[in-house]
Design goal:
3-stranded antiparallel beta sheet; 3-stranded mixed beta sheet; membrane
Length: 588
């Protein structure tokens, strides 16, 4: 029985005692009523009513107590039921707890058993690993011990071999010492014999000298002086011959080396050999287009020539017109303008002005692109934009039929190859060669030599002084003072003088060759004259009786000077004077 049952039982007992007390009071009241005075007494009636009310109240209280007892009984029953349920739940909880405890104990035993097994397995693995590690360490120690033992044996063997060699060396030294002792004795005997013989030779030499002095009538000092003078004269002659041979070899080697460098540079530059014309030809779709180009009373052709500055030549040539202008850029703008007008079909003065503006912008873009392509091909990156614009104008400039911009690119490549062969500053020499003809872009606008004009432009736009000097000296307006100027001259001559680079009319070519031969043939003492290598070399045969060696040199210089003053030609002309003496005899 728990505490709740005890409290409930105490409450029931208290209620029972209260009910019993109330019943006893009621019985006592009834007894008094039987022995009381007559009912007519008001006090008695009031007391009776009060007692009845008290009795009714007691009955009500008894009923309430009974109902309370019933409620208490039902509550006690419910409490007993709940207590029984609680006892059942507690019993079930105890059973569940006992079961969980049993399961936990079983699981703990299982886990413990597995832990024991795992620990045994880990211990076995550790023992195995330790055993293997120990075996490996033992094996390594054994191998190390064997290697150390072998090394000790090898060292012992080397020590024995070295000791044996040392013993042999000591024996050889002893034998050599004995041989040296014997050699010293023999050498001492030979020295004594040589000393005796030297004394005899000295005596005989003195006797021979005295005899020679007696016979020659000269003392030894005089003979020595004569001999020294003879040897000195011979040595000077041999030295002069040697110097001449060395100079000749150096000259031949230098010429061969220079020829090799120039030929290699020209061979490694693959350039076009086609010449460009100075007159542009535009083909038309038909001859009726000529009338539209001329226009009513020639207004279209007059407007075209006044806007473009290009002369338009319309002759009997079928389906073609000619455009002529001194400025190649302006001529190209005119050609492109006329081509666009012909394709469009609308030809009138206002349309000519519009198309001319478009063509001029297009040609400027083409020139700029050509200059940029040339700079990329040569490998020059930093250059003033104004120089780039001038270089682009050289796209339509020709010299003796050779495109000047292509000539600059080719000259730069040749100069770069020469500089690389000579181990010089390749970028500065290539820049000098590439800009050497920049003045030709302004020769029709500025008076003066294109070399001086180009030098002024290069100096104006911040080029290096070596580049400026190479530009102004490449045609000898200024004497060349630097290696850059000399290589620029050489590369310019190689590019302009190679076969097919430039062209001129056959008549002018023949006249130039004839005039060269006339200049040389008009000199005194000249026997024959031959113009060779397309006029780039002239050989003059002179009469050996009339012209000596100095006269031949003077003649070569006079002929070269007169050719420079009278003729215009690309590149340079070599003048070779040949003086040959022949003597013929007949053996009978």
């Amino acid at each position: 029985m728990n505490a709740f049952d005890v409290v409930l039982l105490a409450a029931v007992l208290v209620l029972a005692v209260v009910v019993i007390g109330a019943v006893l009071v009621g019985i006592r009241t009834l007894r008094r009523m039987g022995a009381a005075p007559a009912p007519e007494d008001p006090a008695f009636i009031a007391e009776k009513d009060r007692q009845e009310q008290s009795l009714a109240a007691l009955r009500t209280a008894a009923d309430e107590v009974n109902s309370t007892i019933d409620v208490a009984k039902s509550a006690a029953a419910a409490a007993r039921t709940e207590a029984a349920a609680a006892k059942a739940e507690a019993k079930a909880a105890r059973a569940e707890a006992r079961r969980v405890l049993d399961d936990a104990r079983a699981e703990a035993d299982t886990v413990l058993e597995r832990a024991h097994k795992q620990a045994e397995a880990d211990a076995e693995q550790l023992r195995t690993a330790a055993r293997r590690s120990g075996e490996r360490e033992v094996a390594v120690l054994a191998a190390t011990t064997r290697e150390q033992a072998a090394e000790v044996e090898r060292r012992a063997a080397r020590m024995d071999e070295r000791e044996r060699m040392h013993t042999e060396e000591v024996e050889r030294f002893a034998e050599r010492e004995r041989q040296l002792t014997a050699a010293k004795a023999a050498l001492a005997a030979r020295e004594s014999a040589l000393a005796q013989r030297e004394a005899e030779l000295t005596e005989s030499e003195e006797l021979r000298r005295r005899e020679l002095e007696r016979i020659a009538g000269l003392t030894a000092d005089s003979a020595r002086l004569e001999l020294v003078e003879a040897i000195e004269t011979s040595a000077k002659r041999e030295a002069a011959l040697l110097v001449r041979d060395i100079e000749s070899d150096a000259r031949n080697t230098a010429e061969q080396r220079a020829r090799h460098i120039v030929v290699d540079a020209i061979q490694r530059v693959a350039s076009e050999q086609t010449a460009e014309s100075v007159v542009s030809v535009l083909h038309l779709p038909g001859d009726e287009m000529k009338g539209r180009i001329i226009g009513r009373e020639g207004r279209n052709i007059r407007a075209f020539e006044s806007v473009t500055g290009v002369n338009l030549i319309i002759d009997d040539t079928p389906e073609a017109v000619l455009l002529s202008c001194f400025d190649p850029v302006r001529r190209e703008v005119g050609r492109l303008t006329l081509e666009k007008l012909v394709l469009d079909g609308r030809i009138h003065p206002h349309r000519i002005e519009e198309v001319y503006d478009l063509a001029r912008q297009e040609v400027e873009q083409l020139c700029l692109r050509a200059a940029e392509d040339a700079l990329v091909e040569v490998g020059i990156t930093e250059i003033h934009p104004e120089l780039v614009t001038l270089l682009g104008r050289l796209r339509y400039r020709t010299s003796y039929g050779q495109n000047v911009l292509k000539h600059l690119v080719e000259t730069a490549h040749i100069a770069g190859i020469m500089a690389a062969e000579l181990r010089l500053d390749v970028p500065i020499i290539k820049r000098s060669a590439f800009l050497h003809d920049i003045g030709k872009a302004l020769t029709h606008e500025v008076e003066g030599s294109h070399a001086i004009i180009g030098a002024d432009l290069a100096r104006k736009y911040g080029e290096h002084e070596d580049v400026v000097h190479a530009i102004e000296a490449h045609h000898n307006e200024v004497p060349p003072q630097t290696i850059e100027a000399v290589l620029t001259q050489a590369s310019d001559a190689c590019s302009g003088g190679r076969p097919g680079a430039r062209r001129e009319s056959l008549e002018a070519y023949v006249k130039r060759l004839e005039r060269i031969e006339e200049i040389a043939a008009g000199k005194l003492g000249v026997d024959k004259v031959f113009a060779m290598q397309a006029g780039r070399e002239i050989r003059v045969m002179v009469k050996p009786d009339d012209v000596d060696d100095i006269g031949a040199a003077v003649l070569a210089r006079d002929v070269a000077k007169q050719i420079e003053e009278e003729l215009t030609y690309p590149g340079q002309i070599r003048v070779t004077v040949v003086r040959e003496s022949r003597v013929t005899e007949i053996a009978r």
